[in-house]
Amino acid sequence: MSDLFDVLKRGEEPSLPAHRICLVGASGLIGTAVLDESVGRSDMRVVSVARREFPLPLGARTEVLVGLPEDWSALIGAARADVLVCALGTTIKAAGSQAAFRAVDHDLVIEVAQAARTAGIDHMIAVSSVGADRTSRNFYLRTKGETEEDLGKLGFRRLDILRPGLLRGHRADKRKLEGAGQMLAPIADMLVLHGKWRKYRSVRAATVARTIFALVQERAQGRFVHDFDSMRRVLRRAGD
């Protein structure tokens, strides 16, 4: 308390404790963007949980806890975080089968969320996908929708679901079709994706990361789903 009085007497702004974020999926496109955006921010401290070490951006305020997925529950507890950010995700092609895809995009996401609740974390931000719907005939979108629904049953004080369209940014793993899509996306956004189709607009991974940091600071309780326009509104509220 005396330290605070000294700061006030000097006319300085008292520094608030940084928000502690446990990030799972740090080596992917969104996870990398979150770490990039954390550089230079004293209000955010990111603790990444990962299978292996990976390159970190210079100046990132982060530490990496490494272990196999079966060890992640303990690592999430050790992170002592206020918020869980889950950017886990793969593709059916990369996973090798629908079952292997579901094991990551549903089962592992739910296990991570349950570990966070056990650790006392009551705010989760999860990256999903535009079009996620548990009733969809598309396996990918149905799995995403079922994951969202099951996350909603875990009792988080606040649950934020991000549903970005095509993500733009540099991927370590080259995806030819997605690369072509990233080149054409700005044109489609401008010429085609209007009205009810706006939610399918592409979004930069850095924009999603800034949205995540803005959501970390919001205090309202409940379940919130953020599409293209909602993410823009979140950033406006944060003055970004």
UniProtKB/TrEMBL annotation:
Domain of life: Bacteria
Domain NAD(P)-binding: residue ranges: 25-178
Gene3D superfamilies from the UniProt entry: NAD(P)-binding Rossmann-like Domain
InterPro entries, sorted: NAD(P)-bd_dom, NAD(P)-bd_dom_sf
Name this protein carries in UniProt: Uncharacterized conserved protein YbjT, contains NAD(P)-binding and DUF2867 domains
Originating species: Novosphingobium mathurense
